[in-house]
Amino acid sequence: MVALEREKMVFLVVTLAIGIHFTATAALEPSVIIVGAGMSGISAGKRLSDAGIKNIVILEATNWIGGRIHKQNFAGLSVEIGANWVEGVHGEQMNPIWEMVNKLNLKTFFSNYDNLSSNTYQQAGGLYKESFAQQAFDVADSLAEFSRNISTSLTASREEDISILASQRLKNLVPSAPIEMAIDYYNYDYEFAEPPRVTSLQNTEPLPTFSNFGEDLYFVADPRGYESVVYYVAKQYLTSNSAGQITDSRVKLNKQLEREYPGANVLLVTVTDDESRRIEQQPDYETKAEIMEVLRNMFGKNVPEATDILIPKWWSNRFYKGTFSNWPIGVSRYEYDQIRVPVGRVYFTGEHTSEHYNGYVHGAYLAGIDSANMLIRCIKTNFCKFPIAAKGT
Ligand SMILES: Cc1cc2nc3c(=O)[nH]c(=O)nc-3n(C[C@H](O)[C@H](O)[C@H](O)COP(=O)(O)OP(=O)(O)OC[C@H]3O[C@@H](n4cnc5c(N)ncnc54)[C@H](O)[C@@H]3O)c2cc1C
Ligand SMILES: *[C@@H]1O[C@H](CO)[C@@H](O)[C@H](O)[C@H]1NC(C)=O
Ligand SMILES: *[C@@H]1O[C@H](CO)[C@@H](O)[C@H](O)[C@H]1NC(C)=O
Fold this sequence. Notes:
Blueprint: H1 2-28, E1 32-35, H2 39-50, E2 56-59, E3 71-74, E4 77-80, E5 85-89, H3 96-104, E6 108-110, H4 130-156, H5 164-170, H6 178-192, H7 208-213, E7 216-220, H8 228-234, E8 251-252, H9 273-281, H10 284-299, H11 333-340, H12 361-381
Helix pairs in contact: 2-8, 2-12, 4-6
Bound molecules: flavin-adenine dinucleotide and 2-acetamido-2-deoxy-beta-D-glucopyranose (2 copies).
Residues 142, 145-146, 149 line the site of one 2-acetamido-2-deoxy-beta-D-glucopyranose (NAG).
């Protein structure tokens, strides 16, 4: 009898112990849902996984991993319709994306902008005279240096931010000749996807991407796609098959297949802002006709008709609503903190939440780690507050 009772007691204790054990396990192993399998979501998942939080599900709206890093077949070639360059290479710090690209041995081309003065075409055809073009590039360089100086002094004296265009006006050197506007477009509109009148001076001059990671750019042109860097991060914690596809049941989507990469005559054109909105609204054949007109004005009537055109439409895609975030004038660190501050149990990540590198692949990658760290700190130390510095500090 006594023995039986003892047995009963032990049994109860064991039951109780198991109960506690389950509760403790549940508390230590929370489940995390990641919305979006872009670079940032995949990066956050890796960081969580490294911290022992493996009970995750990644929900992706489209049928691909990589989000705005995405390749597509065009004219028998695998082309990138999203991110194309690794920006910020050969600087003091190593760009984490460049490290991945090298480990994967992706095919890249150094974008050499040293010889632009002998390679700039006039709209009506023919090259600009080198000395003339060189002068325009020199003026643009010195204007950019002036803007950096103004930006530094605004920050030092805690003055309010101005636009890039406003700083050009202070120097009384607003680009107006066609060559000046072309250079200005390349320096600003092309980089930030919005014109200098919109873009914040203080947050772009100097740009942390170039001052920390280096001034160089490499164009990724590999049949495996730029998306390889996303897979590189993903495969470190998600299961994949021998074909390199992510088969982990925690990722909910279908994946696309690889293709060959023969050489081809493909021209890449970038438009931004109002012009890109206009072009997304019209039929692709009209855009093709416009491009052919520009090319024939520039290179002569004998330019053969393009056989095809591919126009990615990121702006009208409801899952993206544009290509990447730009930091506009009037927006301070405070507003950016508001974008990423957690709302209850919902945490935010993405290139737009990156402290220094918004708009870039490395920004997405690093933001994923930062956001995951905030969540890990909350889970592990119960410190779930995200203090925001007051506006203007
Ligand atoms: C045309 C273009 C050119 C670019 N060029 C460069 C470049 O040369 N160099 C560079 O460094 N960067 C470049 N970028 C920027 C870079 O691609 C992005 O900064 C980066 O890929 C963003 O990653 P992300 O994870 O923050 O967002 P995303 O890649 O957008 O990932 C978010 C994911 O969430 C998914 N999603 C959205 N809504 C939902 C929903 N409701 N439910 C489930 N899933 C959802 C989306 O489908 C997507 O997969 C370019 C971008 C574009 C579009
Ligand atoms: C610069 O460009 C011109 C015109 O295309 C070319 O003749 C010259 O060889 C180039 N120089 C270098 C160093 O690439
Ligand atoms: C920028 O500041 C540096 C250092 O004060 C100065 O030497 C340089 O001339 C300035 N450049 C321009 C274009 O104003």
